[in-house]
Amino acid sequence: MIISRTPVRVSFCGGGTDLDSFAKKIEGGGMVISVAIAKYIHVTVNNRFDSKIRLSYSKMETVNTVEEIEHDLVREALKATGVSNGIEITTIADIPSRGTGLGSSSAVTVGVLNALHRHIGRDVSSQHLAEGACDIEIDKLGEPIGRQDQYAAAFGGMNRISFNPDGVEVSPIALSGDIVERMEREFSLVYTDNTRSASAVLSEPPLDHGDKIARLRVIRDQAAEAEKLIRSGDLKSLGALLHEAWNVKRGLSPIVSNHNLDSLYARLLDLGASGGKLLGAGGGGFFLIHGDPDLRSRLIDGLPPENKVIPLKIDHDGSRIIHPT
Questions:
Q1: 3-state DSSP call for residue 258?
Q2: What is residue 29's three-state secondary structure?
Q3: Per-residue pLDDT averaged across 176-180, rounded?
Q4: Percent of the chain with pLDDT over 90
Q5: 3-state secondary structure of 154
Q6: pLDDT tens digit string along 128-173?
Q7: Residue ranges matching CATH 3.30.230.10 in the chain
Q8: How many whole angstroms separate alpha carbon 88 and alpha carbon 135?
Q9: Which end of the chain is more exposed for a tag (fewer CB within 10 A), N or C?
């Protein structure tokens, strides 16, 4: 049996500039500051006694051929790796696997590819996994998404990820132990109790194309500023920058936010958050929130149970095979 473990990610600033429509057409390309977190998609791959293909995720599938598979990401991963029968694949997620704003769908793709490659005796690089996941999701399935999630999941750690017509460049941001410890104490994720399809949000037409491009340029500049603040350890200013980024992001589409999300965010500020933003394309999922080290306790005590509070803990490994070790 092969088991892969692949992290989801938190994007601090720059989301939206990783879409090809911006990164490949606007001067300067796109830039995202993101960090992989210790919440994982586990994928198991095992041989079957017979020649059928069995999948287990939120539903079960047992089919005779790859083409019959309903799970589009797994189907295309099997095609990409050349595995065609006699296999059983299971995915297990630490968090909901779709619609959370944490890049979980891309983590599934990366994790399935990693496990299948090892199953057939290939060890592949993080770059290869990320490129393969982008090819499946964007090029083959036509999802209107960006390219940050696949690279964050494959590489792990804190990174500046740059996007341009020539490709994607991952630049690790080295953090001292003190900054890592402070980030993990001061940042939390708050579940909105709503999920949404990133594709649905990103497919919405902008209010005004020119205004959207102007906002995305601001968001790209905020990513550069976020990197400086992270490197210097000025986390309070980073929290304030997240607040600015959220206000800019809310203008990208009429469905990025809504009354319930705005009310929840106001409550988070009332509880003492220095700032925050909704992760992913918008419409639901998780808020990333910054505050003093006691904020997490206030959030847990002051929010209803459905708004689950999760500590931010950084993953430094990216997608890896954990069995056999």
A1: coil
A2: coil
A3: 97
A4: 88
A5: helix
A6: 999 999 999 999 999 999 999 999 999 999 999 999 999 999 999 9
A7: 2-175
A8: 23
A9: C
CB 223 within 8 A of CB 13: yes
116: tokens are 């299948």
- Residue 217 tokens read as 């340029």
CATH class for the region spanning 2-175: alpha beta
Q: Model confidence at 84, in pLDDT bands (50, 70, 90)?
A: very high
- Location of each CATH 3.30.70.890 domain in the chain: 177-311
User: Is residue 174 classed as helix, strand or coil in its secondary structure?
Assistant: coil
- Alpha carbon distance 178, 66 (integer Å): 48
Cβ atoms < 10 Å from Cβ of 104: 28
| Burial zone of 82 (CB within 10 Å; 0-12 exposed, 13-18 middle, 19+ buried) | exposed
Find the angle CA(307)-CA(309)-CA(311) to the nearest 5 degrees: 160
Amino acid in the structure at residue 155: F
Dihedral sign for Cα 296, 297, 298, 304, please: positive
Contact 19, 30 (CB under 8 A): yes
Report angle CA 33, 35, 36 to the nearest 5 degrees.
145
* Model confidence pLDDT, tens digit, residues 94-133: 987 677 899 999 999 999 999 999 999 999 999 999 999 9
Question: Mean of the pLDDT values across residues 283-308?
Answer: 96
